[in-house]
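Record 1 of the preview.
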Amino acid sequence: MKKKITLIIGILTAAITFAQIPPGYYDATAGLTGYALKTKLNEIISNGALDLGYGSGTGGLWLTYQTSDRDYFYENNGTILDMYSENPNGPDAYEYIWGQASVGGNQCGNGANHENSCYNREHTLPKTYFGGQNAVPMANDAHFVIPSDYYVNSMRSNYPYGETSTPTWTSTNGTKVGSCSFPGYAGTIFEPIDEFKGDIARMQLFFVTRYEDRLTTFTPYQTASSPLDGTVNRGFKQWYINLLLKWAAQDPVSPREIARNNAVYNRQKNRNPFIDHPEWVNMIWTSTMSTSETAALNRSISVYPNPVKNQITHLAGYGLDEVKSVEIYSLDGRLVQTINQNFKASKTIQLNNLEKGTYILRTDTKQSAKLIVQ
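->
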């Protein structure tokens, strides 16, 4: 799903990520798992964290976005990278310049009743669920408060994230609003495009980790649509945890997420641990799932980038540590390539100059995914 990712970039990114995590930052997590790990992470990312304010003029979140949310990954032109309007597979229908209108920028507090009027600040977990704009530092936290198109933000309203097969509204880039088709919830939801579902999931899990010690105080603000469950440990309702686990697995950490994490750390002095260590998502929350729910996720596997452009791609999903071989079939059923390797050590696949077209990838653990070669 993530484009512009190659083996070389992946290796360089891993090195950069390691180098920019402060020495010893996560040392106290050694040997921990489950909710004990989550609680320790809460202590680490809360200690010394700064509240820089919501911002007015070019301060607070506005100033953070100057470095945290510039597009050097898709159009690569330094415009604001808005996950609700970004088109990963082609030129954006519209783009926003960082800064106030007085200096030629497109930030705003209010906008027009259509897309492409301006960008504002979006709480990926709606602020009504934790007390509103005066509930700080939550309302000002750049790890989950992002720049977004004003109108798409308004269409999101206070809906939780989810998946829909019957959208009632679709944005320019494919973001949807509609009735939830994901098991466990039937209300209206907001579904971002696949490219950013993992980003969103890791932001949500950051919230219930960073504010673990305050989760019970949010109880008075809960409605039927809120995904918060009122507990200190799990944090979210089970259906929402299942959704976030699925998205985190299908859309792995990207160079863009890593760069954003580093930029926010430079400002707020805390990090999103699930970007630095995505394996902690499963270590903390998979144990909360039933056997049937875990089995269903274990059958889920994805390929990224997809379409494949340089004969190099990656696998993501649960259970890959047990995979020892992958077979690739053409649509007419011919076996065109077999890859035997330790997927616990590397999730990267080198294709053998496959012709352009659509293929089916199957693992020896009975998982499968569609593979498109360009």
